Amino acid sequence: MQGEVRNAQGERLDYTYHEAGPESGDSQETGPLVIIGHGVTGNKDRPFVVALAEGLAAAGVDTLRLSFSGNGESEGRFEDSTISKEVDDLGAMLDAVEDRSVCFIGHSMGGAVGVIRASQDSRIRWLVSLAGMVHTRAFAAREFSDVTPDAGCMWEEPSCPLSQTYMDNMNRIDSVADLGSKISVPWLLVHGTEDDVVPPQDADDIRQRAGSHVETIRLEGADHVFSDDPAQMVALVVAWVRSQTQG
User: Fold this and answer.
1) What is residue 131's DSSP assignment?
2) Which of 16, 52, 106, 189 could connect to 110 by a Cys-Cys bridge, CB 3.0–4.6 Å?
């Protein structure tokens, strides 16, 4: 895949495309496509995101990792980065890939992005939530209640200012748990037992609203970014995606 992709604000979205390896039976740019979206303060180049994209491509699945606007090398201001805007960014990318059958993999806040988009957009045929955020208001209060919006930063990172725009959006959404009942596509929830950023209970809460088409994997000892053993997460996700898209 080549060419510029811009969102509704005209901002260029940075992405990296991994063409499927020889195991793929589909011709270039016609088979299923995985799009990977990151979490808050992240971007497409986080090591576990790269490892997952490379694993999927090696297993025969075209994969695209995306930096949402205002993050990484994508255009836009970080202060304007919200779940709602990233849902629209994902829509712009879906527009760009046209006729592809898409599996979206969202990490952390990207998990909430995926749930919202999949609940309203039939172009997402498969969904994976990696340490997916569900209760957005609770997350913002838990992590940033001691930070003054438009004055302080997320986790004391100077490149990640906390905006009132972000907090208002997190509070307005409140939770995506009830959207679980509106998603009918195959869906995989992956969460580490030692995640201290998005608690495993988030996955349990949305799983209770969803149907039998949802599978859950709980990784013992894994943290929010699967730092101790990303290979285990990669292998499990790759196996599930292959079984769904090439079975």
Assistant:
1) S
2) 106
Q: What is the pLDDT of residue 30?
A: 76
Q: Taking a C-beta distance cutoff of 8 angstroms, is the pair 128, 237 a contact? A: yes
d(CA 225, CA 146): 24
Helix ranges, 59-146 (H): 83-97, 109-118, 136-144
The set of residues, in sequence order, having a beta carbon less than 8 Å from that of 199 and lying 6+ positions away, is: none
**Plot region of 180 (φ>0 → left; ψ -120 to 50 → alpha; else → beta):** alpha
- Comparing C-alpha atoms, which of 105, 149, 146, 155 is closest to residue 125? 105
Beta strand pairing call for 102-107 and 187-192: unpaired
In this prediction, residue 247 has a pLDDT band, given cuts at 50, 70 and 90, of low
Sign of CA dihedral 159, 191, 19, 244: negative
The region, left, alpha or beta by phi > 0 then psi within -120 to 50, assigned to residue 131 is left
Is residue 67 within 8 A of residue 44, CB to CB? The reply is: yes
Q: Dig out the tokens for 155 from the structure.
A: 């986790």
SS3 (DSSP) at 29: coil
- Indicate the SS3 state at residue 98: coil
Q: Which two tokens stand for residue 172?
A: 């307005």
Q: How far apart are CA 247 and CA 241, in angstroms?
A: 9
Identify the structural domains of the chain with CATH numbers, from first to last. 15-135+177-245 (3.40.50.1820)
Place of tokens 């075209």: 62
Q: What confidence tens digit (pLDDT) does each residue in 169-188 have?
A: 999 999 999 999 999 999 99
